[in-house]
Amino acid sequence: MLKRALTDVIAKSAKKMPVITLIGPRQSGKTTLVRGTFPDKAYFSLENPTNREAARSDPEGVLARFPQGVIFDEVQRAPDLLSYIQVAVDEDDTPGRFVLTGSQNFLLMQTVSQTLAGRTALFTLLPFSIRELAQMDPVDPRRPTLVNEGTEPTTELWQTLWTGLYPRIHDKGLDPDRWLADYHRTYVERDVRDVLKVMDIDGFERFIRLAAARTGQELNYASLAADAGISQPTARQWMTTLRVSSLVTLLPPHHQNYRKRLRKRPKLHFLDTGLACYLLGIHSSQVLENHPLRGAIFESFVVSELTKAFVHQGLEAPLFHWRDATGHEVDVIIDLGDRLVPVEIKASVTLGSHVFDGLRWWTGIGANPTTGGILVHGGKAHHKQDGFSVRPWWIW
Questions:
Q1: The pLDDT of residue 104
Q2: 3-class secondary structure for the chain?
Q3: Closest by alpha carbon to 91, among 63, 51, 70, 133?
Q4: Is the CA virtual torsion 152, 153, 158, 161 positive or negative?
Q5: For the segment 336-382, what is each residue's pLDDT rounded down to a tens digit?
Q6: Residue 65: what pLDDT?
């Protein structure tokens, strides 16, 4: 079992809080993580129909079985159980008493916020990061200007992006195309029906594939809805479902107004490029390397790695994008409160002077105190150039 960056964070939190809640997309490794972190704790899976029925019909009786605490896996299957856990921890708030996991959805998040506020530490687990896969120590994402050395991955760039980073693919050496097809089918046919009660599965299938074609781009709901043949409110609702399921993230525009007429649309990124490739019908790394969307998919990969660097330390990812009305843009702005770090992302290996144009423009804006920035690219070069830090795709 590969160690996850969240392991030590969760273990430390369990010494202070009575409930630990771990959410994230299906197959991100939640069960493996909590069972490995708390090997002596009883385990109760609510995916098991018998266990689920017991939790729904006799929640007090189920809790009475585990006076020393328990791991409740996929707790969204019996959301009313959370109210009884609230009562139990109000009577006995022993740290680390309950560990809950759940596939992130509206019902679970709403119930947790209503019943366990102040009683639980909430964490999100995404698929592997490059550093986790290589078993390198996690880095502090709040210090991104420091160079975080890393070992070059054993697989090349486009193979890595096409395969994606879901743990089971790597743990079992599975065919990514086959596994992701099954994963998508399960997600659409099971989770979407459960969360949204969607009857138009074909419509949602069109929607998610069209969304994948917009990864790395500003999100225009009117255009997406029209192409999918649905209303704008439906498109927004379905996009929120993808976000809450941790399949995509939306980078909001950075609002610090160094210039007027800033663009205000968020930027859409799929959090696993393997899943995005499957949805786009890209069935090999060779096809991806020459695909028109290779640059956008590479950008989403880097954004995903940045997001994991924060959330796998139990932190919110303060990531934004910036673009003005004249077309000048910076792919990512990391807002660390006391400073802003601009990040430009280029899939190219050769770095001409023009690749720094966005960073130069943004840092040159009047009243902007930021100097320097980071350029992440698809090659192996790792150095300083034109006052900016140049990093290969696997270093963060």
A1: 62
A2: CCCCCHHHHHHHHCCCCCEEEEEECCCCCHHHHHHHHCCCCEEEECCCHHHHHHHHHCHHHHHHCCCCCEEEECHHHCCCHHHHHHHHHHHCCCCCCEEEEEECCHHHHHHHHHHCCCCEEEEECCCCCHHHHCCCCCCCCCCCCCCCCCCCCCCCHHHHHHHCCCHHHHHHCCCHHHHHHHHHHHHHHHHHHHHHCCCCHHHHHHHHHHHHCCCCEECCHHHHHHHHCCCHHHHHHHHHHHHHCCCEEEECECCCCCCCCECCCCEEEECCHHHHHHHCCCCCHHHHHCCCCHHHHHHHHHHHHHHHHHHCCCCCCCEEEEEECCCCEEEEEEECCCCEEEEEEECCCCCCHHHHHHHHHHHCCCCCCCCCCEEEECCCCCEEECCEEEEECCCC
A3: 63
A4: negative
A5: 988 899 999 999 998 888 899 999 998 888 778 888 899 999 999 88
A6: 96
> Pairing state of beta strands 42-45 and 70-73?
parallel
The string of pLDDT tens digits covering residues 87-119 is 999 999 999 999 999 886 555 666 666 778 789
Please report how the helices 30-37 and 6-13 are oriented relative to each other, as an axis angle in degrees rounded to 10: 50
Q: Return d(Cα 282, Cα 303) in angstroms, integer.
A: 20
Count the residues in the chain: 396
Domains in the chain: ranges and CATH? 6-124 (3.40.50.300), 130-392 (no CATH)
Q: Name the stretches of the chain with pLDDT < 50.
A: none
